[in-house]
Design goal:
Layout: E1 9-16, H1 34-42, E2 44-50, H2 56-65, H3 69-72, H4 83-86, H5 91-97, E3 101-106, E4 121-124, H6 130-135, H7 146-151, H8 185-199, E5 206-215, H9 223-227, H10 264-294, E6 301-307, H11 326-329, E7 330-331, E8 333-337, H12 343-347, E9 353-360, H13 364-371, H14 386-389, E10 405-411, E11 414-420, E12 424-429, E13 434-439, H15 457-471, E14 479-480, E15 483-484, H16 495-504
Helix pairs in contact: 8-10
Amino acid sequence: MNRPTKQKNVILICVDEWRGDCLGAAGHPHVQTPHLDQLAREGVRFDRAYSATPTCVPARVALFTGQSQERHGRVGYQEGVDFNAAHPVTIQGEFKKAGYHTQAIGKMHVYPERARLGFDDVVLHDGYLHYARKKFKQQFAFFDDYVPWLRRQPGVAPDEEYFDNGVNCNSVMARPWDKDERLHPTSWVGTQAVEWMYRRDPSKPFFLYLSFHRPHPPYDPPAWAYNQYLNLPDYKAVGGDWEDDWDEFRKDGDYQAAYGHLPNEVVHRARAGYYGLMTQIDLQINRIRESLADFGLDEDTVIAFTSDHGELMGGHHMFRKALPYEGSARIPLIIADSADATRKAAASRVQHTVVSDVVELRDVMPTLLDLAGVPVPDTCDGVSLAPLLRGAASDPERPPVREFLHGEHVYFGQNIHWLTDGKVKYIWGSGKGTEQFFDLAQDPQEQRNLAKEPEHQTTVAAWRQRLITVLVGREEGFVRDGQLFPGAPVVSMLSHTREKIAASQ
């Protein structure tokens, strides 16, 4: 029998590479996400949520630690970093200290791959991890639970895996899944979650981290999900007057390039695969929520849904992530407290509560701990959004969560910094001092760079000074003599984090 508890259960659903605009609730014209839309009606959707360091590794550090990149020190993508040594305080560790049963299912993308980091157990599938595949020479049992499970299923060959169809994990090539849908990694995560509900400790509240590798490539949803998006209007790339700023990194015809021109029909099929994976995930989330109701857990469980970063999906002839543009850096964030007395009323509303403050992945940890009544550690510099779920969102006099957000990522051989308040965005590339400025309210697709236009110079200068203030004292030397300094050498990990790792050895 399940023992009732006054403490709230918490489920954190993290998907991989899901754009912030790709929700029916956000008004997307094509993507069908009815069950996530329902979750939004029951809670709060944060319309200007961002990933400050928008690739898998540093973004998940922010999610797990509740820290900005300045504090956690991961400003680029770097594999093989001892997570426990670099980031000892995590959201799952704090829940465990508070007496929670903690479980992770799906993608962790940490090192060592089997590190639990405060989880009681981890059931693992990170997708195509080049680093781990080479390190363990495809001995999947060391770093993946999905492939060994797959090979045990009836009718499956003993050497099958997720790369049998040859579709690469960073490619825009798309095709339907080549096996039964029940064998798809997305279905596997849902199955593992439902099966875990039987095994959880009923005497404790739980924290479940449910992490889907998709809609990250490969773009391989089941055929039904793929086909329903093939008849969309023909794809046409969104252009911009600034794309030649990055022309030295352009690789036309490369199906794994970050920037390059590809045939529109190829991107059209990639978009069908991408959206199809989203719809498949949406159905698995519904499956899990219905299972919560079956187990009598739906009335006392907080559910959060987010992504580690977005996907450029051909905008400005760009793909993948890491760059500061909205397709890459803006993410979905929905948080619903099922124990809220207004839940049923909210669920019946056509409209839902939307907060347009700029929030970031670092805010998830303090928010969920706060909602569960668990102390937020001093290591966090994220902000609890719990008051906004408790009614403060409707207060017109409240101050914003933050005045602006600073994001960055080492990419294109430099560190590309950006600032946004959700209305405008300032970008500075440290390599050559590339400068861009966008009016997001008037130009949400970031097509017109205002940085050099005379009438905007005062505003651009003010945002430039904000970045200078943020970067003063950074070890790379981005600011010299009070000005932004192009050409400074860059690092993917700041020295205070490197020193912490060295001290633990």
